[in-house]
Known about the structure:
By secondary structure, this protein is mainly beta. It has one helix at 2-19; strands spanning 24-28, 32-35, 44-48, 53-59, 63-67, 73-77, 81-82, 86-89, 93-97, 106-111, 115-118, 126-130, 136-140, 144-145. The strands form 4 sheets. Strands 6-5-4-1-7 form a 5-stranded antiparallel beta sheet, with no helix packed on it. Strands 13-12-11-8-14 form a 5-stranded antiparallel beta sheet, with no helix packed on it. Strands 2-3 form a two-stranded antiparallel sheet.
Amino acid sequence: MDAVLRGAALAAALLAPAFAQAIEYRSVSEPAILFDAPSDKGKRLFILSPGTPVEVVVALDKWVKVREPGGAISWIERRALADKRTVMVTSDRATARQRPAEEAPAAFEAMRDVVLELATPPADGWVQVRHKDGVSGWLRVSEVWGL
Length: 147
């Protein structure tokens, strides 16, 4: 029995790095068609607007399998993705603060589904974002998708 437990522990230790990889997000660089298969001959499902954040699930040569903010998993051409990071507001109304604190003055408000540029990585439950108009502020990470 000890040998079985040691073997299981070794297998878990070897597999742990594979499960510890960070989730990768990208943004759509242009209006992009999502397909049901990694081919332009696949069924066209719908179009994503520029700036929409997507989660990378699998990357092939010319195609990337992604999860979009609504949860659907489909394929997109790699050329339609940008390295620029964006997030999408998920709460009905999110108040961006001038600093990462609830009591901080408001910088701006954003409604559900507004796409914002990621200015800094999240820290301590907050993320700094920038509106396309140039104003920036801090949102709670629970108010956005794409992190």
